[in-house]
Request: fold
Amino acid sequence: MPCYILTDNLKSQRLIKKVLFNSIYFETPSALLHALGRTRKGQVIILDSCIRGFEQAGIQTAQLIRERDPDAQIIMMSDNAEMAMLCFEAHVGLLDYIIKGNFNSAFFDRLLRAVATAKLNIRHIYDFRPVSIRLPDGRTSRLFDLTRIIYITTESGSYHLIVHESDHQTRIRSSMREVELLHDHFQRVHTSFIVNTSYLNAYYPNEHYLTLVNGQQIPVSRNYAGKLRDVLRWSSEQTERPQLIHNK
Reply:
């Protein structure tokens, strides 16, 4: 997950790039807001309090972001400690307010901790928030909560699938080909298995199976192993050890 960073200070950009590799930088609030409008809600956003000499640019940008996205994790950095009170009074819900100072190790330690906390918060938000999804069931469809679906299997000798949820199973009349296209979290790993990638725990490429967070072992066929690595960005060269996944 990238961080969206607003700063027109070239020194800030250069130094922060050394510790936050997967980040996107913007020099104007309008450019940042335009980019955020094209992404899903719940992003990690780092704002410089002062942009182009305007001391409250960061606060005003935070207000606009918060109006659109209550889940945004906003971190403010500044040279001015007195701005912290203004941020509090503006009720923009900052995760942290960090004084840049000389960009010493204390600044970067605090920044990295704040980013780690922000990403954990976002993960918790999406893990526990129900996501409605309709799965085809014959001539009709059935409503499920995606966050409770662990994996889906074929039923031997029939045209039905078994949806395995955290506390029960549901039988639907559908096909694996139809279901696997319904959501990005549905990953086909075998002719008879679709897994919800949110529940992945580890992948054992040499043994051709993966494990889920509930301990369930799922076979992975050669036909789907390459796609599985591509989707989760695993290196095809690292095949000697189990690949650990930290989605939940």
Notes: The first strand starts at residue 3 and ends at 6.
